[in-house]
Amino acid sequence: MKRSSLSFFTALLASALLLPSCVRDVVLDAGENVQVAVECVMSNDSIQKLYLSFTKGVSREEAEPLTEAVPTLIDLTESKTVGQFVKGKEENLWTLDYSAVPEHHYRLEVQVPGYELIWAEDIMPRRIKVTTVDPRKIAPGKYASQFKGHIYKFDEDFSSSLWIHGIDMEFEDWLVRTGPIAGEIFTDLQNVDNFNVTGEKYVPEIKLIVESYGKFTGIHTIYPDLKGAMKHDRFLRVNGGRYDELFLLSCNFSIWKDHAYYARPMIFMSVSDAYDDYLKTALMMDKVKESSDMSTLYLRDNLPSNIHGGIGIFGGKVQWDLDCGWRITYVPVEEYSKYGIDPETHKYIED
């Protein structure tokens, strides 16, 4: 994949909550050689979105609007034209009523007056089989618990990348399931890319010290099995998984302090190879700005691009959400040493 030197660039990363994408104007300094910027990440939504714009020449105060184009989506797997994108009301936006088919090979062609044919190809990813398991119903061991919570399980072997992040929604938004991206995420999965670790480790929060007849008998604590897990900045990039593999996920959900027993959405996203490379590079450059729908990435330069005859990204993603419940565990005093808890203070001993 080629790379484009850009001052600022935007890419689409819509959330699994079916929020409308929010892509801001692309203003790129590309000298006097004005290029066409193309942004299209196919999804399992019923409407596909394409953003087209011109880059800004050095001598111009702002980029010229791109109003004339013929963008066409072609399904190479079925050897047929899916349809043409139609200009929307929003500036730079073009839409197509269509839901991309998993594992189909697509080609995007964009005809702009005065430019040679602009095109790109990519394969739409499929949804990875991930489920939740009730810890009260599994065999005794690390993941079993007498309290309700959420354990995750892969129901297939896979080698592609799987992205995960949490939504730190407010209690009153429970039904609509919206909110900002949780700032940190951690897991006991071993096959995780560490490109965005924060350098800090998770220390479980103690919610309640249990006392009986004037004697301390134990504590209630959140995710004790994740103690010492490395914290990742907002996202996990999982590099494949195994069938029947169990794992834990949690985030620093700020609102657990007030409404602990309400689950939060954990967002899973399968991505195409082109979009995977694009997204990881963006995050490594640490230019992702937080927004409620995660849709805008501001980048500096050297961003991967698979657009021939222009710059930008043509990729694919499949998103869905699973609940992340509050995994509270009772730890009796006699098991303090197992979890690294000080018997005098009833607090975790930090590594």
Summarize the structure.
The chain has 351 residues and is mainly β. Helix content is 5%, strand content 38%.
Description:
The chain has 351 residues and is mostly beta strands. The chain is built from 2 helices and 24 strands. The protein has an 8-stranded mixed sheet, covered by helices on one side. A 4-stranded antiparallel sheet has the order 5-4-8-9, with no helix packed on it. A 4-stranded antiparallel sheet has the order 14-17-13-20, with no helix packed on it. The radius of gyration is 23 Å and the shape is elongated.
Q: Quick one: how many beta strands? A: 24
Q: Which series of helices and strands comes N to C?
A: EEEEEEEEEEEEEEEEEEEEEHEEEH
Determine the structural class based on helices, strands and strand pairing. mainly beta
Secondary structure: helix percent? under 10%
Spatial arrangement of strands, main beta sheet = 6-7-3-2-23-21-12-18
Q: How is the main sheet built?
A: 8 strands, mixed
Which key features would you list for this structure?
351 residues, mainly beta, 8-stranded mixed sheet, 4-stranded antiparallel sheet, elongated
SSE layout and pairings?
Blueprint: E1 2-4, E2 36-42, E3 47-54, E4 70-75, E5 80-84, E6 86-87, E7 93-97, E8 105-111, E9 118-123, E10 130-133, E11 151-154, E12 158-166, E13 184-187, E14 197-201, E15 206-212, E16 215-222, E17 230-233, E18 236-241, E19 246-247, E20 249-251, E21 264-271, H1 273-284, E22 303-305, E23 311-324, E24 328-332, H2 336-339
Parallel strand pairs: 2-23
Antiparallel strand pairs: 1-22, 2-3, 3-7, 4-5, 4-8, 6-7, 8-9, 10-11, 11-19, 12-18, 12-21, 13-17, 13-20, 14-17, 15-16, 16-24, 21-23
